[in-house]
């Protein structure tokens, strides 16, 4: 019997089995079929448990001769083993296709016990493949028919259905010649560029954890990582056009955590990060045109937290940040024309909180801020022509609140204030609301 290359497994589909059987019975010469991969064996010599040619661990593929009584319309086979210990019996009716028939058989041992049972079912099963009579050269010898069949014999495996399957349903067959066979006649289990790649990682570690994934176009890449660690944790993913990249990370750590992602046009990038830490946390993301960038960050920290995002035209940028801190929190965002910028910030703090946003023509700028604080809160927004500016502020505070908005022609400015009922009046709380509007703007 021929030896298979290292790492290869002989696992033909139903369609391929009939091709092997056709080559054996009718003498056809398929270029990718090697008949010596299937050994010839007398399966009816003895019971399968005692048979030297059968494997108890893996499937065994054999050519066997089925002997039966020749009749006009059909023939009946004798499936008893010659050692007298039992016989192969058909479990279900035959499944027919244009190529041939497929039968499921189970081996039964003779048994004489107190319950009166004469046979005992074993866990040896056989799938028997036979060509249709019209497709096979049947040999008749002394009134009996000798028919070559191909059998797949397994110990312990239960078959849920016996339908004849086509090679195309296997998913790992090569379409080169329509048979699903490669040049050696063996199917190789190999990944292709269009396959879906998933990585699910849960790694508790005290050392650095690095997940690096490089993919080309059309590949779906998913990384789900939960890695609490005492050292630095680095997640790096580089993708080209058309790559869907998702990173879901929960990594409480005692040291710095850095997430870096560089992508080209058409890349969808999502970063969902929850990282309580005792040191500085930096999230940096650089993208080019048409890139959708989302950053959802919840990072309570004892030191300064900085979020920087630089984008070009057509970039959709969303930053959702909840960061209670004991020191200054600064959010800086610089965008050019045509950029949609949204900042949703809830930042209770004990010191001054500053939100700065500078935009050019055609920039939609939204700032939604809820920031109870014990110190002054300053919201400053400067924009030029055609900028839609919205500020929605609900900020109960014990100190002065100043809202300043400077805009030029065509600027829509809206400011909404909702103070809690326990503040009696704007005058009593010394709240100074200052609105300076240029000519042509609307309140």
Automatic annotation (TrEMBL):
<dbReference type="GO" id="GO:0003677">
    <property type="term" value="F:DNA binding"/>
</dbReference>
<feature type="domain" description="NAC">
    <location>
        <begin position="4"/>
        <end position="156"/>
    </location>
</feature>
<feature type="region of interest" description="Disordered">
    <location>
        <begin position="405"/>
        <end position="428"/>
    </location>
</feature>
<feature type="compositionally biased region" description="Polar residues">
    <location>
        <begin position="411"/>
        <end position="427"/>
    </location>
</feature>
<dbReference type="InterPro" id="IPR003441">
    <property type="entry name" value="NAC-dom"/>
</dbReference>
<dbReference type="InterPro" id="IPR036093">
    <property type="entry name" value="NAC_dom_sf"/>
</dbReference>
<keyword id="KW-0805">Transcription regulation</keyword>
<keyword id="KW-0539">Nucleus</keyword>
<keyword id="KW-0804">Transcription</keyword>
<dbReference type="GO" id="GO:0006355">
    <property type="term" value="P:regulation of DNA-templated transcription"/>
</dbReference>
<feature type="region of interest" description="Disordered">
    <location>
        <begin position="164"/>
        <end position="184"/>
    </location>
</feature>
<dbReference type="Pfam" id="PF02365">
    <property type="entry name" value="NAM"/>
</dbReference>
<feature type="region of interest" description="Disordered">
    <location>
        <begin position="73"/>
        <end position="93"/>
    </location>
</feature>
<protein>
    <recommendedName>
        <fullName>NAC domain-containing protein</fullName>
    </recommendedName>
</protein>
<keyword id="KW-0238">DNA-binding</keyword>
């Amino acid at each position: 019997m021929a030896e298979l290359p290292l790492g290869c497994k002989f696992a033909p589909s139903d369609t391929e089995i009939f091709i092997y059987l056709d080559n054996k019975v009718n003498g056809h010469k398929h270029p990718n079929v090697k008949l010596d991969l299937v050994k010839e064996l007398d399966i009816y010599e003895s019971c399968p448990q005692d048979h030297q040619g059968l494997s108890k661990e893996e499937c065994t593929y054999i050519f066997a001769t089925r002997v039966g009584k020749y009749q006009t319309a059909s023939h009946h086979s004798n499936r008893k083993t010659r050692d007298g210990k039992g016989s192969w019996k058909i479990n279900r009716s035959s499944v027919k296709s244009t190529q041939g028939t497929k039968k499921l058989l189970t081996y039964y041992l003779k048994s004489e016990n107190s319950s009166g049972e004469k046979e005992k079912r074993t866990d040896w099963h056989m799938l028997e493949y036979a060509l249709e009579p019209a497709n096979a050269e049947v040999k008749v010898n002394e009134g009996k028919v000798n028919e070559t069949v191909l059998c797949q014999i397994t110990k312990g495996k239960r078959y849920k259905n016996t339908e004849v399957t086509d090679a195309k349903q296997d998913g790992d067959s090569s379409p080169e010649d329509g048979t699903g066979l490669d040049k050696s006649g063996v199917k190789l289990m190999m990944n292709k560029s269009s396959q879906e790649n998933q990585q699910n990682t849960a790694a508790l570690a005290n050392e650095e954890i690095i997940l690096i994934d490089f993919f080309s176009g059309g590949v779906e890449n998913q990384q789900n990582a939960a890695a609490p660690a005492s050292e630095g944790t680095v997640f790096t993913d580089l993708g080209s056009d058309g790559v869907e990249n998702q990173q879901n990370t929960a990594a409480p750590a005692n040291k710095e955590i850095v997430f870096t992602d560089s992508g080209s046009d058409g890349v969808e990038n999502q970063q969902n990060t929850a990282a309580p830490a005792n040191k500085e946390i930096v999230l940096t993301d650089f993208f080019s045109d048409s890139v959708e960038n989302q950053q959802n960050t919840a990072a309570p920290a004892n030191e300064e937290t900085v979020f920087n995002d630089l984008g070009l035209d057509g970039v959709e940028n969303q930053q959702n940040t909840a960061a209670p801190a004991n020191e200054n929190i600064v959010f800086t965002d610089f965008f050019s024309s045509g950029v949609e910028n949204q900042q949703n910030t809830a930042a209770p703090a004990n010191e001054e909180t500053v939100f700065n946003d500078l935009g050019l023509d055609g920039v939609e700028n939204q700032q939604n801020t809820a920031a109870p604080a014990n110190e002054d809160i300053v919201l400053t927004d400067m924009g030029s022509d055609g900028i839609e500016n919205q500020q929605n502020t609900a900020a109960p505070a014990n100190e002065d609140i100043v809202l300043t908005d400077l805009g030029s022609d065509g600027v829509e400015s809206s400011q909404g204030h909702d103070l809690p009922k326990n503040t009696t009046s704007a005058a009593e709380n010394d709240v100074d609301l200052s609105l300076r509007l240029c000519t042509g703007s609307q309140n």
